[in-house]
């Protein structure tokens, strides 16, 4: 075989190896994001310029001029519907990352629903992101068991979570809860299961016009 005919073969093998490494890189990133899954806490930043502070209560907040835009978060929901978080711009969005298999998620579920019922008429929308459930059946059963009435995006591989920029108030554990302000920017985050009291404390500053 001539050198000229061998060159395309080498090129094809190189391209295949590159594609394989790319797939592994994406998979490793998702695994790294979820390594602290089902924990009650996590780290406060992801490196780089964070622009936020974490209080002793584990709630991290960013000032109005320091907030990052929430990424595009849309797709099918656990119950077969469709949700696009961008449609809620002008409202405060409470975003909760959860899994039916996660003990801390079960511990906080009724607290989230109780607060949601209290504040939904104040321009607040709750949205869940269900992750690492390999089918929607367990997730639907979870919602039924805990009386969850707000929608949850179905994100079994964590792709939506990976859309948050490193070094911002991104979800780094399961459960994670984020507050997105009325301008579509991430204002607060916690990486722990929330009591009703702590969730209200996290949300209350954004219910009034911010200075």
Describe the structure.
By secondary structure, this protein is α+β, with helices and mostly antiparallel strands. 32% of the residues lie in helices and 19% in strands. It has four helices and nine strands. It has helices spanning 3-33, 103-119, 136-146, 196-203, and strands at residues 53-54, 59-61, 74-76, 82-84, 92-98, 124-131, 152-155, 176-180, 186-190. The strands form two sheets. It has a seven-stranded mixed sheet with strand order 1-2-9-8-5-6-7, with helices on one face. The longest helix is centred in the N-terminal third of the chain and has 31 residues, at 3-33. It is globular, with a radius of gyration of 20 Å. 38% of the residues are buried. Mean pLDDT is 84; it is low at 4-16, 18-33 and 39-49.
Helix-strand blueprint:
Layout (H helix, E strand, L loop, with lengths): L2 H31 L19 E2 L4 E3 L12 E3 L5 E3 L7 E7 L4 H17 L4 E8 L4 H11 L5 E4 L20 E5 L5 E5 L5 H8 L8
Parallel strand pairs: 5-6, 6-7
Antiparallel strand pairs: 1-2, 2-9, 3-4, 5-8, 8-9
Search tags:
single chain, 211 residues, alpha+beta, two-stranded antiparallel sheet, 4 helices
Instruction: Kindly report the oligomeric state of this protein.
Output: single chain
Radius of gyration: 20 Å
Poorly predicted tracts of residues: 4-16, 18-33, 39-49
Major β-sheet annotation: 7 strands, mixed
Derived structural class: alpha+beta
State the distance separating the first and last CA atoms: 74 Å
Helicity level: 25-40%
Number of helices: 4
Strand-and-helix sequence, N→C?
Answer: HEEEEEHEHEEEH
Number-wise, the strands total 9
């Amino acid at each position: 075989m001539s050198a000229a005919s061998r060159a395309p073969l080498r090129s094809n093998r190189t391209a295949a190896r590159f594609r394989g490494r790319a797939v592994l890189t994406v998979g490793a990133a998702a695994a790294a994001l979820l390594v602290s899954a089902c924990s009650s806490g996590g780290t406060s930043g992801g490196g780089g310029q964070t622009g936020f502070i974490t209080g002793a209560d584990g709630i991290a907040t960013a000032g109005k001029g320091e907030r990052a835009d929430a990424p595009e978060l849309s797709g099918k929901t656990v119950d077969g519907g469709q949700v696009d978080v961008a449609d809620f711009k002008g409202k405060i969005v409470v975003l909760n990352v959860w899994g039916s298999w996660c003990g801390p998620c079960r511990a906080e579920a009724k607290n989230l629903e109780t607060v949601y019922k209290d504040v939904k008429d104040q321009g607040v929308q709750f949205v869940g992101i269900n992750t690492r459930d390999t089918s929607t059946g367990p997730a639907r059963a979870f919602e039924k068991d805990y009386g969850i009435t707000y929608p949850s995006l179905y994100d079994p591989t964590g792709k939506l979570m990976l859309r948050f920029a490193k070094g911002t108030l991104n979800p780094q554990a399961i459960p994670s809860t984020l507050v997105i302000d009325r301008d579509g920017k991430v204002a607060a985050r916690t990486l722990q299961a929330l009591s009703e009291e702590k969730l209200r404390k996290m949300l209350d500053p954004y219910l009034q016009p911010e200075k």
